[in-house]
Amino acid sequence: MNFDYDVVIVGAGPIGSNLAYLLSKNNLSICLIDKKKEIGIPLQCAGIVSKDILNYIDIPNDLIINKAKGAFLHTKNNILQVNKEESTALIIDRVLFDKYLFKKAIGEGVEFIQNKVINIDSEKGIVKCANGDTISSKIIVGADGVNSIVSKEINNDLNKVNASQFLVKIDDNGVNDFRNSKKNINEFVDVYVDSRIFPGFLWCIPTENNLYRVGLFSDEDYKSQNLILNEFLEENFTVNSYEIIEKYKGAIPKCNFKNKLYENRVLLIGDAAAQVKPTTGGGLVLGFNISKYASKIITNSIINDDISLIKNYADEFKNKFFNELTSQYKLQKTLKILSNDDLDYLFKKLKENDAEELISKYGDIDKQSILIKEFFKRGLIFKVIPSLFIKNISSIWNYKFK
């Protein structure tokens, strides 16, 4: 059978565009399809990533609008400070970043079709578009996000949480009052854990020129999320010290280990595959890392004219990422059983047991299992968790408490 392309990638977001770029280096015919007339619009991300992203792609300096070297972690009445010696996170312009990766792929000969995909045939490798056009491909990659048509077509469950974000301008007095005149106020991110919005959290991220991204993700609808964000601003800033410039909304997939990552000629990646960190909902660094393996497996399948080889993709994902994501899922599950009073108790005990230093030393937003192992190794987990929950937590982690 003759195919129009070696690989059709549905979704020209950062993961889809980056995978297209990697595949184009292997002399394959690649097509990107996206329904958006303008890639990167609308903004649907907090735009903060660990510096580990630079291990997978280059980011032009003009797309990095700030860097963070630490965070203030808040419960209702307690604060933990995490402080690294050097910047560990980048705050990027996500709209321009998405455009950059898209243009990079197109520059390597990747073809782009602006159209909406309405269904696919995973056996025949057929993509059907809204205008009636059909495109054939040896392999179809679903990189079409949280509402993935490709993922639905292979009968996956797409569970998600809502996300809302404000771009807020805060004057100097408002910022100083908020930070209690702490030094280097623009090098720290604020994160709020609140049982009302689990499995998510609320964030306040400094960008540039007194602009902050204030947002959250949770199971609540957008109206409820907007009320919570407005309440946060009203509680932390005087009315005249801030101005909401823009509002955004989106969704984040829930990590789901039961969903299929491939079927016949179809392979899923990124949000379409629910490949996100359970604790934060972030998926960029994870997605770029997975793209390396996906690119090699797809290329090998096509060169050897053996599409069945894409089954190795699921095995590779499990071998490389399953343990880390499982640890994060268990951490999320642990926090979810705690009330706000319990969270206050937890943070108080963490502070009393010098956990700020431990978190600062071992904390890694992408490899959270490292810090979790330290907590268990030192027996700290059972010193800080309310005794009422020890049995439940031991069960979650399959850990025998002595």
Supply the key terms.
402 residues; alpha/beta; eight-stranded mixed β-sheet; seven-stranded mixed β-sheet; 12 helices; 18 strands; 35% helix; globular
State the gist of this model.
The chain is 35% helix and 25% strand. The protein has helices at 14-24, 94-106, 149-153, 172-179, 222-236, 284-303, 311-336, 340-352, 355-362, 369-377, 381-384, 390-397, and strands at 5-10, 30-34, 48-50, 64-68, 70-74, 79-83, 89-92, 111-114, 117-121, 126-129, 134-142, 160-170, 188-192, 202-206, 211-218, 242-253, 262-263, 266-268.
Describe this structure in words.
This protein is α/β, with parallel strands linked by helices and 402 residues long. Helix content is 35%, strand content 25%. It is built from 12 helices and 18 strands. Strands 1, 2, 8, 9, 10, 11, 17 and 18 form an 8-stranded mixed β-sheet that branches. A 7-stranded mixed β-sheet has the order 6-5-13-14-15-12-16. Strand 10 and strand 11 (134-142) form a beta hairpin. The longest helix is centred in the last third of the chain and has 26 residues, at 311-336. It is globular and about 65 Å long.
Q: So how many helices?
A: 12
Q: What fraction of residues sit in β-strands? A: 25-35%
Measured distance between first and last alpha carbons: 63 Å
The coarse silhouette is globular
Q: How many DSSP E strands?
A: 18
